Automatic annotation (TrEMBL):
Sample GO molecular function, one term: ATP binding
Keywords: ATP-binding, Carbohydrate metabolism, Kinase, Magnesium, Metal-binding, Nucleotide-binding, Transferase
Organism: Jatropha curcas (Barbados nut)
Protein name: Galacturonokinase
Keyword Nucleotide-binding: yes
Domain of life: Eukaryota
Residue ranges of the TM segments: none
Signal peptide: none
Limits of the GHMP kinase N-terminal domain: 130-187
Domain GHMP kinase C-terminal intervals: 302-379
Keyword Protein biosynthesis: no
Listed InterPro entries: GHMP_kinase_C_dom, GHMP_kinase_C_sf, GHMP_kinase_N_dom, Mevalonate/galactokinase, Ribosomal_Su5_D2-typ_SF, Ribsml_uS5_D2-typ_fold_subgr
Length: 407
């Protein structure tokens, strides 16, 4: 593409992430856990030497061209696309996949960084992981940030890039998601569980003293590429959480605090939860129970107790269905099949469960057997959807990954 030598090509690795515990509470300032897997985005690029940006994609057609001296304006997604913030394939298709690069330029320039040089690049995700629900939108945004920063000799810390990717998703695309995805992608370390307090932005890496058993990560795909749901979407659930917080803070005499559930003391929640409207009670119930599961999960992980860790993951999946009211029939079926698979410690669907995949922690010695079991059972439960999945990538056996980086 650039007419330059291969030795000049730089490559950004930006991994996909999984969230074992801490689902849907990051936007309320909760504590979350995450790790990356050894699949993700590769962005090969060369600094363009001028202001032009030229991009091609392994997943999407056409060539994107723009100049970094053009003013970038926010491009809020349409209401019908709000099913989930990590609905990345649909987001990229509907919003023009090159807008993620424009969003990265917007984020850097809007905070005063000097961007004088563009890139010529080719971006591609791991085969079979399209529409996976493993935050490929955040991985893409991070990849463009790292490439543009490298081309312009900018030294930006991982925590700063978390904020820049938040700007891409919150300001540029108008989504109301939190910072879990980009935090996991930028802060993870192989073999460790990343834990972040989304209220204070403090994070730590928890490395187990010794795991009771070695494990693999199963990623089982549903075949759903378009969200099968009539629910009001991701942003509505965020608003419901804030409505619950507003009520609980007012009831406890703290109505001057920002309406986030992290500002509600657990004692105040217990005292006034019975007065919440039913839907708001469910959203608050998920937040406080999930926060508690994260705390227990961190202890289980640190001690290497994968069985206890897995039970908490499965309980998180159940609360996402019952209290946060996510999921659709195929993903819920897939979740239940994983729970029955040999060697599985715990499972949940990734993201909101309207499309994409389920993830599970599984005994390494039984991973292949579990994958075969899930494949066969899901074909029985959803033959039409199963037929749409590449048989070579319907259930993938993965390992933990590392943080996004330039190689």
């Amino acid at each position: 593409m650039a007419g330059r030598s291969p030795e000049e090509v730089r490559v950004v690795v930006s991994p996909y992430r999984i969230c074992p515990l801490g689902a849907h509470i990051d936007h309320q300032g909760g504590t979350v856990s995450a790790m990356t897997i050894n699949r993700g985005i590769l962005l090969g690029f060369i600094p363009s030497g001028d202001t032009k940006v030229v991009l091609r994609s392994g997943q999407f057609g056409g060539e994107v061209r723009f100049r970094i001296d053009e003013v970038q304006y926010p491009r809020p997604i349409r209401k019908k696309d709000e099913n989930h913030a990590t609905n990345s394939q649909k987001l990229q298709e509907d919003c023009n996949w090159g807008n993620f690069a424009r969003g990265a330029v917007y984020a850097l320039q809007s905070r005063g960084n000097s961007i004088t040089q563009g890139i010529i690049g080719y971006i591609s995700g791991s085969e079979g992981f399209d529409s996976s629900g493993l935050s490929s939108s955040a991985a893409v945004g991070v990849a463009y940030l790292l490439a543009l920063e490298s081309a312009n000799s900018l030294t930006i810390s991982p925590t700063e890039n978390i904020e820049y990717d938040r700007l891409i998703e919150n300001e540029y695309f108008g989504l109301r998601n939190g910072i879990l995805d980009q935090s996991a992608i930028l802060l993870s370390s192989h073999g460790c569980l990343m834990c972040m307090n989304c209220k204070t932005k403090e994070h730590k890496l928890i490395c187990p003293t010794k795991l009771q058993k070695s494990f693999k990560i199963l990623v089982a795909f549903s075949g759903l590429r378009n969200a099968l749901t009539n629910n009001p979407g991701y942003n509505r659930r965020v608003a419901e959480c804030q409505e619950a917080a507003t009520f609980l803070l007012k009831a406890s005499g703290n109505d001057k605090m920002e309406p986030f559930l992290c500002n509600v003391e657990p004692e105040a929640y217990e005292m006034y939860k019975g007065k919440l409207e039913p839907i708001l009670a469910k959203r608050a119930g998920h937040y406080f129970s999930e926060n508690a599961r994260v705390m227990k999960g961190l202890e289980a992980w640190a001690s290497g107790n994968l069985e206890e860790f897995g039970k908490l993951i499965s309980a998180s999946g159940l609360s996402s269905i019952q209290n946060y009211e996510c999921g659709c029939e195929p993903l819920i079926q897939l979740y239940k099949i994983l729970l029955r698979a040999p060697g599985v410690f715990g499972a949940r669907f990734s993201g909101a469960g309207f499309r994409g995949c389920c993830i599970a922690f599984v005994d390494a010695d039984l991973a292949a057997e579990a994958a075969s079991f899930v494949r066969e059972e899901y074909q029985k439960a959803q033959p039409e959807l199963a037929a749409q999945i590449n048989p070579n990538s319907d259930v993938m056996i993965c390992e933990g990954g590392d943080a996004a980086r330039l190689i």
